[in-house]
Amino acid sequence: MSTDPARSGELLLPSGDALICAQAFGSAQDPTVLLIGGAASSMDYWEDGFCARLAAAGRHVVRYDLRDTGRSTAYPAGAPAYTRKDLVADALAVLDGVGAHTAHLVGISMGADLAQRIALDHPGRVATLTLQSTTPGGTGGPDRPELPPMEPRLQAVFADQGPGPDWSDREAAIEAMVEGERAFAGSVFDAERSRALSARVYDRTADMAATQTNHWILEEDGSSDPDPAALTVPTLVLHGTEDPMFPLPHGRAMAAAVPGARLVPLPGVGHQYPPEPLWDLVLAEVTAHTAR
Q1: C-alpha to C-alpha distances, 234 to 69, 95, 259, 263, 292, nearest whole angstrom
Q2: Which residue is catalytic, options 41, 243, 250, 289?
Q3: What is the pLDDT of residue 292?
Q4: Which Pfam families does UniProt cross-reference here (predicted)?
Q5: What are the strands of the beta sheet with 32-36, ordered from one edge?
């Protein structure tokens, strides 16, 4: 384990063939909350102020850069040499690196998928789960016809096969990142705040092209999708009322699928990290849930 002098308190932690960059807030004597990000997003999206407030509530808060984001190991764009199993192992390596055997896991989108996998495969290491912006599976197809598909405006984004920006061009990349966030967001969206955060992300990222590509093309590793009905830890489900990727019925279905889970809708929020106007609500819910 080593400290990265580029930013106060950052650690570079070994996990298999990778180094994972992590940062902790608060006292290690408090219960640990591990924040697990979504696809193509570094730890920065768990904003400093959010982490500091959760730590002030008596939690040891740990965030980290997934592979191919931030200062963690990056692979050539289009050729990620890892699978979701490795991303699960990375989360456990971060917990080992900060000396936490058991933690409360808070995961968003792909991070919620990883959190479920950890809880199912390593139940002794998980105290509670908080799952945001996720689904029990299915997007309106014959398997789950009651769940609506992604909204047309987001379908158009995924259907756009254009060349995209030159990720080596800082200003073009930042603008593309802001517009990407806007596409996933609900009505609670601050473009200037997103631009400042995107600039920070860009300046911390080893390979922006890899970040924007590799998580979306991970090869299947033979593992099955998590079964929410098999989860046995206390679970809180947070879901934006304006999520264009997994509309709110997905959140309701997720809460219904996990035994004993509780749903908290986030008004005006899309498929996005908790925006600052919702921090009071989200932090109150997470603090209460992780007190269990």
Answers
A1: 30, 20, 8, 12, 8
A2: 243
A3: 82
A4: Abhydrolase_1
A5: 2-4, 10-15, 18-25, 60-64, 32-36, 103-108, 126-132, 235-240, 262-266
Pick the catalytic residue from 41, 42, 109, 133: 109
pLDDT at 109 over 70: yes
Confirm whether 109 is a catalytic residue.
yes
What CATH number is associated with residue 197?
3.40.50.1820
Q: Where are the alpha helices (DSSP H) in the chain?
A: 48-56, 84-97, 110-121, 152-159, 170-184, 191-204, 208-213, 248-257, 279-289
Give the pLDDT confidence of 265-283 residue by residue, as tens digits.
999 999 999 999 999 999 9
Compute the mean pLDDT over every residue in the chain, rounded to the nearest whole number.
94
pTM of the model: 0.95
* Angstrom distance (rounded) from CA 77 to CA 180: 18
Write the DSSP string, 234-283: -EEEEEETT-SSS-HHHHHHHHHHSTT-EEEEETT--SSSPPGGGHHHHH
- Tell me the per-residue pLDDT of 189-245, one tens digit each, with 9 for 90 and over: 999 999 999 999 999 999 999 999 999 999 989 888 999 999 999 999 999 999 999
Please check whether residue 265 is in contact with residue 239, taking contact to mean a CB–CB distance below 8 angstroms. yes
- Structural domain boundaries enclosing 284: 2-289
Q: How many domains does the chain have?
A: 1
Does 8 participate in catalysis according to the annotation? Answer: no
239 is catalytic: no
Contact 206, 71 (CB under 8 A): yes
Nearest to 106 by CA among 264, 268, 267, 269: 264
Residue 138 has pLDDT above 70, yes or no: no
